[in-house]
Design goal:
Chain lengths: 454, 102
């Protein structure tokens, strides 16, 4: 019988991810990258990869290490690969970002950092893909949320292969015509598979499970949710098919891309209707802050989808792509990530500190590890800054963007302090703290003494 | 052991299990409907069948161990055996109304 497992390295992934997020926010405050530079400038690519790989991918990986076993009801395969993957990713992503900075003309940095960083990053991601793919493989037939994760992993693999190719072309190490064609024409595919497939589609699948779990909504596979998976997986499959079409020089790529875009929009529409049903069908009358803060992320996804459709119809997708990607990255993915961290961090902390004491002494609830009123203010500030920054990008107002990024940096750091307070058990009533002192677990390193961790 | 005594022991075990609070739900495991069955046999052998809200929940082993320890210390229990099952799977309808507001 499958029992409890606590992912040993999840909190370390979260800590590294939050550091990358703070660095990315500081880059935006200082005017490094878009909108001060053009959207395809090396400075922007440094910023984009700090956020999408450093923050969002490490966050997603850490969360999956803990929740893939919950999704499939069996332990993780090769859990010991979690730590080497983290080391490779932190080193690789840092090197990749410095490689982009080198292309941007930063002195003292070798452009070879770019392909070296890409290689090490891909190695780290490959280890994670092995862990998750093996776990999913042994858990067949997969429940629906896990099938979203499988499609997300497939997208990650292709996005990585494309990204690795670009790194070698941009640094001058590769000049094969196919690689150059992919670099010139495939960047939007790389972005769509990374942001849309790996990060968004996986988030959608996991959200079905987590929201149902946390709000006690009816937990059954709906036909509509299966339709979301089919449409989304088909859209991602079409995008993958465009890669060999570029290499072979086939026509009809734009048509396929438009069909994939329409399928994605339809999938998002049905997904959002499902989410409304989950919120409305909940048994838990009071919803906790993680689920409330998630509403802001869903709102950002709705706005982004509307803008995307409007841009497609008006034929101005090129003009609106910057604000659109910003809204998806920060409003939807970062908003959802921070909101769920607000639940996952106290939950894991509770398991580490109080799990072994359950039934032996009075233990606090998971909710006793957080102070929602304080954090709710920072979540409001976060979403306000996302809205203002998105408008600033539409108005091409770099000053307003930097000012709102400063507000966002403050909100993110305040939330990080809330996570630290949770880890330190600072919010727990004094009579329920650990016996022998108020100290909590290690902030972000695993407790090697714990007997329950794999 | 007479039937009435056995029923009393089951009641004592159930009351005792009410001290174990599910960390996420904030209600005790009995009112949440996580305890499917409590059976007491000759010689103080108590068998508890329980579930968790989610299969694969990271708190599963802690909850099971807490239930086992709790039952063991109930006067009259000589041996406690806890079985974890997901048949039928837990649903929110199994909760007492008082637990839902949590």
């Amino acid at each position: 019988m499958f029992g409890a497992t606590l992912s040993r390295w999840t909190m370390s992934y979260f800590a590294a991810a939050l550091i990358f997020l703070a660095i990315g926010e500081m880059m935006m405050v200082l005017g490094f990258g878009y909108p001060a530079s053009s959207i395809d400038a090396p400075e922007t690519l440094a910023l984009v990869h700090t956020i999408t790989l450093g923050w969002l991918s490490l966050l997603m990986a850490g969360a999956l290490l803990q929740f893939v076993p919950v999704l499939v009801g069996r332990p993780l395969s090769f859990p010991h690969l979690g730590f080497p993957a983290l080391v490779l990713l932190v080193v690789g992503i840092t090197s990749l970002v410095l490689g982009f900075a080198s292309l941007a003309g930063t002195e003292g940095l070798s452009p070879l950092l770019l392909p070296a960083g890409a290689t090490v990053t891909i190695a780290g991601l490959a280890l994670l893909v092995i862990v998750f793919a093996a776990t999913l493989w042994h858990a067949r037939p997969l429940p629906l949320p896990a099938r979203f994760v499988a499609a997300g992993l497939g997208s990650l693999v292709i996005a990585c292969l494309l990204g690795g190719t670009y790194a070698f072309v941009l640094s001058g190490l590769a000049d094969a015509p196919g690689a150059i064609d992919l670099t010139l024409e495939g960047v939007s595919l790389h972005a769509a598979l990374g942001l849309g497939g790996w990060l968004s589609f996986t988030t959608m699948g996991v959200s079905y499970r987590l929201l149902t779990m946390f709000m006690l909504s009816p937990d059954r596979e709906r036909r509509s949710s299966r339709t979301v998976w089919i449409l989304g997986a088909a859209a991602l499959g079409m995008m993958v098919c465009i890669v060999p079409m570029i290499l072979a020089g086939f026509a009809g790529r734009t048509t396929l891309l438009v069909v994939a875009a329409l399928a994605s929009v339809l999938a998002i529409g049905i997904y959002l209707a499902d989410i409304v049903r989950i919120y409305r069908g909940r048994k838990r009358r009071l919803i906790e802050l993680n689920s409330r803060a998630g509403i802001g992320a869903f709102a950002a996804l709705i706005v982004a989808t509307v803008i995307f459709v409007a841009s497609l119809i008006s034929g101005q997708i090129d003009k609106g792509v910057g604000p659109l990607v910003y809204l998806i990255t920060f409003g939807w993915l970062t908003g959802m990530g921070l909101a769920q961290l607000y639940k996952i961090v106290p939950f894991i902390t509770w398991l580490e500190c109080y799990g072994p004491l359950l039934g032996r002494m009075p233990t606090p609830r998971v909710q006793d590890l957080v102070v929602e009123t304080r954090a709710a203010f920072w979540f409001r500030l976060f979403y306000l800054t996302v809205a203002v920054a998105s408008v600033a990008l539409y108005l091409d107002n770099a000053w307003l963007f930097r000012a709102s990024s400063l507000g966002q940096l403050i909100a993110v750091n305040a939330l990080v302090f809330e996570f630290v307070a949770t880890r330190r058990l600072s919010n727990v009533p004094s009579n329920l703290r650990l016996p022998g002192g108020p100290t909590g677990p290690h902030l972000f390193f695993p407790s090697f003494q714990s007997r329950r961790q794999p | 052991m007479q039937k009435t005594e056995s029923e009393e022991l089951v009641d004592r075990i159930r009351d005792s299990l009410r001290t174990i609070v599910d960390p996420e739900m904030g209600s005790n495991v009995v009112d949440l409907g996580l305890i499917y069955d409590i059976a007491v046999q000759e010689g103080g052998l108590a068998r508890v069948t329980m579930t968790t809200t989610i299969k694969g929940c990271p708190a599963t082993a802690f909850l099971k161990e807490a239930v086992q320890n709790c039952v063991w210390y109930v006067p009259g229990v000589e041996y406690a055996e806890v079985r974890l099952t997901y048949e039928p799977p837990w649903t929110p309808e199994m909760m007492l109304e008082t637990s839902i507001a949590q």
